[in-house]
Specification:
Length: 144
């Protein structure tokens, strides 16, 4: 019998694998998918915030952003808080590309959440949020 921690790891790993498989089927990396998701609907994103949001390393985010910039999908501008930290902003072309990538995935996610039912979906989101909050707090406590 698997313990709850092993079940959690299995569920998280499976979700990650499904998103990776979805990205692979469209010929993009999961890293690109995660960065586009981080930028989706947010205007004040920096590479550091993308790292914090996605869990990707600074080098990985930098590589994805550089590729997006070379394709004309993002522009970098000086950050408001720290001018050395660059804001990452989708261009019109980048916004169209992001919608092309994310809209089908978000439609799939909405369909799955609908099939689950709003109560279960809301509970799952609340539980994951609570887990992340408590995990972060405990991790910080243990690092002291």
């Amino acid at each position: 019998m698997l313990t709850d921690d092993k079940k959690l790891w299995g569920a998280w790993g499976r979700a990650n694998a499904l998103y990776t498989r979805w990205a692979d089927a469209r010929g993009i990396s999961c890293y690109l998918l995660f960065v586009l998701y981080a930028l989706d609907g947010r205007e004040d994103m920096t590479q550091k915030r993308i790292c914090d949001c996605t869990g990707l390393t600074k080098q990985t985010v930098n590589s994805v952003i550089r590729s997006l910039k070379n394709e004309g999908y993002v522009v970098l501008s000086a950050g408001q808080e720290d001018r050395r930290e660059k804001r990452v902003v989708l261009t019109e072309q980048g916004l169209a590309y992001s919608r092309e990538v994310l809209d089908p995935l978000q439609e799939l996610e909405r369909a799955v959440l609908t099939l689950m039912g709003s109560g279960r979906a809301r509970q799952m989101i609340n539980d994951i949020t609570l887990f992340n909050t408590v995990f972060e707090k405990e991790m910080e406590e243990r690092q002291r």
